[in-house]
# Entry
Amino acid sequence: MASMLIPRCPLIKPHLDSRATKITLGSTVLLRPAARMELSTAANAAADNASAAQSTESPTTDTVVQYVVLRRDLIDTWPLGSVVTQGCHASVAAIWAHKDDPHTLSYCSPSNLDSMHKVTLEVKGETQLVNLSDKLKGGGIDHKLWIEQPENFPTCLATKPYPKSTVSSFFKKLKLCK
# Structure
């Protein structure tokens, strides 16, 4: 079973048997033992080299992370897929708007493509989201406040990728999105 695809996300706990991986409540993904996801031989080699390099680095390496903040009131009232889509919009927009930034280039590099770090948090509603956006602007933290159209109201925000030590203090009081 060593060749089975196992998710890297620490929040997903696979339960393995001989033929299936349970990923979320009520969903089972059947995998053939030889199933693998590959970008290209060169990209895999680069990722393997990066993984080897990371394992020899000191534990003080600052992880580059992107924060995504969703509104709890929308999570409770909208279909889950719609809320996830809003977060995806904000995430992609923040990365694209800062595509030439060194942290963004590192975050999206082929060697890091399979090991991106995102933290998804929640706020109570629109007021808290706008206040957080203002706080981030005041702190010089680049982000995208996603405004849903044509309704013209903020649904979520995402930072550009930053070293965790640079931005984590802005998000300490927020809850993980569950």
